[in-house]
Design a protein that fits this description.
This protein is α/β, with parallel strands linked by helices. It has 15 helices and 7 strands. Bound molecules: guanosine-5'-triphosphate and magnesium ion. Magnesium ion binds next to helix 5.
Length: 382
């Protein structure tokens, strides 16, 4: 058996070496891998036969009582792709919903090596010491290869991962971006019901994932580092426009002066950009996650944001809009999946594709043919 202290809390009590914290390979046959064989009979998402099945009430009461084991099992239930788990998970969520929303949701992004883990360790430990309860979630829709990264991060977030007020949850396993989004959003709600008043959602800044995380948080923090001369390198302007704060990390030692110069440069550039949040002026800051300088100041900025947007109503409006957007995004995703899985569409698609490529069929006519295959002859030009 591994040392109990080293084990992440989402590992089942009888989980073996496949759950060691330094697993870097994509985990196969995890909670998502089990769906095929278990889809027919609902069972708790943990495969252990020794585990009692939990009822909706067990899940709900357990989460509300802040039972960490139940919390972890609820998240695992939510992350399951098995249809049989979906109804149970949705009922649990429905009952937890009145207990959600009482947290500040902070997204943290930055290029690999920017210092996200070190930053979360420093800020997170500070907040937990102050008595806050912090949940750290990772969103990594890119692939199963990097899935283990936050597990590897346990070494960098060692202090935080051992703190009784902290809860660290790795990214849900692959699938569509929509699938990962759903799991992360629902996990946020469950953590809130379990009394976590601060939520960090971490993502590596390598593309689409920033927009995904922006769509589920109140405050979006872009962690940056100074580069050789061109400060805008590696960071797309579009990502800066999503941010409520630019934090230039590693402002220590020889790098301090450079970081401060970068801060001034960004502050000038920010003048010309539309703010990510109505009424809020996005600014650049410096910090050193390593020596802990400027960390408390970053938190003050987040608290000020929280205060200001709560008073102005911008916070509540953002959350309403985010939920609605999410509903319609899910509708789109379901419709799209149904369309492409439709036998008629699948049968028609190859020849339509070919005809379009050979310029025998205009694009609009191709769409009409495909939608006819989907909806039958009743389809009217839309
Ligand atoms: N000098 C200095 N080094 C830092 C600071 N913050 C992080 N580092 C170092 O930068 C390296 C990367 O830090 P991480 O915290 O792992 O960065 P990350 O953004 O989580 O990286 P990925 O998880 O790979 O995306 C580590 O060697 C850290 O020790 C800092 O404030 N100052
Ligand atoms: Mg990291």
């Amino acid at each position: 058996m591994t040392d109990e202290k080293q084990r992440p809390e989402w590992v089942p009590p009888d989980g073996g070496a496949e759950y060691t914290t330094n697993v870097m390979k994509g985990v196969t046959g995890g909670h998502d891998g089990m769906l095929a064989q278990n889809a027919a009979q609902p069972s708790p998402p943990n495969q252990s036969p020794r585990r009692r099945q939990l009822t909706v009430d067990d899940y709900v009461q357990g989460v509300l009582a802040r039972d960490r084991t139940i919390l972890a099992r609820t998240i695992t239930l939510i992350e399951s792709n098995a249809p049989a788990h979906a109804a149970l998970a949705q009922e649990v969520l429905r009952q937890l919903l009145p207990h959600t929303g009482e947290s500040i949701r902070v997204g943290i992004t930055g290029v690999p090596g920017a210092g996200k883990s070190t930053f979360i360790e420093a800020l997170g430990t500070m907040l937990c010491e102050q008595g806050h309860r912090l949940a750290v979630l990772a969103v990594d829709p890119s692939s199963s290869i990097t899935r283990g990264s936050i597990l590897g991060d346990k070494t960098r977030m060692e202090q935080l991962s051992r703190h009784p007020n902290a809860f660290i949850r790795p990214s849900p396993s692959g699938g569509t971006l929509g699938g990962v989004t759903r799991k992360s959003r629902e996990t946020i709600l469950v953590c809130e019901a379990a009394g976590f008043d601060i939520l960090f959602v971490e993502t590596v800044g390598v593309g689409q994932s920033e927009i995904t995380v922006r769509s589920m948080v109140d405050f979006f923090l872009l962690l940056m580092i100074t580069g050789g001369g061109d400060e805008l390198q590696g960071i797309k302007k579009g990502v800066i426009e999503l941010a409520d704060a630019l934090v230039i990390n590693k402002a220590d030692g020889d790098n301090k002066i450079k970081a401060q110069a970068a801060r001034a440069e960004y502050n000038r550039a920010l003048h010309y950009l539309a703010p990510a949040t109505e009424g809020w002026g996005t600014r650049a800051y410096t910090c050193s996650a390593l020596i802990g300088e400027g960390i408390a100041e970053v938190w003050e900025v987040i608290e000020e944001f929280r205060q200001q947007t709560a008073v102005s109503g911008v916070l509540a409006e953002r959350r309403r809009q985010q939920t609605l957007d999410w509903v319609f995004a899910m509708v789109e995703e379901h419709l799209k999946a149904r369309f492409f899985q439709h036998p008629g569409v699948q049968a028609t698609l190859p020849q339509v594709k070919q005809a379009v490529i050979e310029e025998m069929l205009p694009a609009t006519s191709a769409v009409r043919d495909l939608l006819r295959a989907f909806e039958g002859e009743g389809y009217q030009n839309g």
